[in-house]
């Protein structure tokens, strides 16, 4: 029986896009590799992808802006 109080997607209003899935997977892989700081995360995303929207390199600033945009779009 599923715990009626646990719904891991309770705040989600739609299914994630392919890009969002790829980005989430890349962030999870970085954390699993022991990367827990923003500069390290940005460097890892630039090495392994996915690319930043617009095809530019990830920076701390555009990463933070993209995560804020995605959070507002949920």
From TrEMBL:
Pfam families associated with the record: HTH_62 (PF20552)
Domain called Recombinase-like: residue spans: 1-72
Top-rank lineage group of the source organism: Bacteria
Protein name: Recombinase-like domain-containing protein
Organism: Noviherbaspirillum humi
